[in-house]
Design goal:
The chain is of the alpha+beta class. The chain has 15 helices and 11 strands. Bound molecules: zinc ion.
Length: 432
Amino acid sequence: MIVKVHKLKNGLTIIACEYFRFNSLYFDLAVKVGSRYENEKNNGIAHLVEHLAAAQSSAHKPVEQWIKDDLVHDFSAYTLQERTNFEFSAHKNDLKPVLKLLSELVYARGVVIDKRDLETEKKIILEELLENENEPDFYYNTKVRNICFSDCSLKLNILGISHNIMKFCLDDVRRFVNDYYRPENMILTVAGSFKIETLVKLADKYFKFSRESMAQRVESLKKERFRISSAYIEPKGGINFINRSASQNYLGYYATVQNSNADELIKREFFVEFLDQYLSHYLRAKIFCYSVGADINTFREFSSFSVESSFQPDKTENFYALFQQILKRFRKTLDFGTLKHLKNNKLKRLELDKDYPREAANLTSWFALVFGTEKIITHTYQQRMIKSVELKDIFNFYDQMFRVRPGTVIIGGKVSPTQKQQLKKLWSNWKV
Ligand SMILES: [Zn+2]
């Protein structure tokens, strides 16, 4: 695989991953926008704009409604906190019509949504919200964001709130698109069998962003009344209880770590991956819980690390105490030999991922969006980083996540006063 980066005159970044033995092309178009760029008044607009764009992909049907033009496959669009993504695959012979379609999808040729499309998508999103509200994960995610990021836009729900959705009008959509769906705010990654020269020529032709200059955009953003979080967020800390009647209690441990660069993040993600395996292996066997997960969610300035689990209410203090013990043992027993073994496993997994152009494009595009395109991260690059991991890096990550502070702990469900007391004591005596 050969990876090439090209910047169009209009500012759009193109990353080409050339794999010549495939029949399919894989497209990943990332826009640097999401709920982190919203405030309470327009929360939900980024997701609405994504829906409207996705609806465009089937809007230009040259034939009867039900015979869709078979251009794009496995289409998926989603909105995150800092990113809105459009992904799909297509046949290698369809590069031209697909690029034309994609340019319409990301409003490169203006906003052509009518009021009826807007009202339709708003109704769909209101249902999407209701469906989400019934999920326990959604309930706790909302609580966790409110506790950890109480005074900035990271606390906002990606889907928005129904009150906002109902009142959004075409002007709101246009303004938002003009501010964020700008070529300099997008990365188009294509993987598969094609020539970058052809791709660049076609993209130049179809991605015509007329409209205001970048300077004007900055001015218009300044006028916005709200505050967008754009810095490292200090963890709020503390042990927090959420009263909730449910058959299981929930426990979450949260810590945030500053991000200096992509290399460090690759290593830290590797660490979290095997820590997840370790915790899951030992906690499940000792406390019989169905799921334990260590995870890391990365923003440009920092990563938010979490360990989450659910179990019967009477296991709560036992779980928290065991979590501490198992962490201690992990720190004590991790040695050079184990790390070498873990590294080899990871190198093999990365080797396998190289077989999938989609994996390659997703990975490269994500790192480019977060850390810029000066350094292009591929699976081969990741392998180099993994090889260079030393025990002291791992211990350093461990300290950042578990030793600097006792973490922000969130416990939801039914907790008796005695349990509460014990849990608070465990939190203040945290030592791993
Ligand atoms: Zn949606």
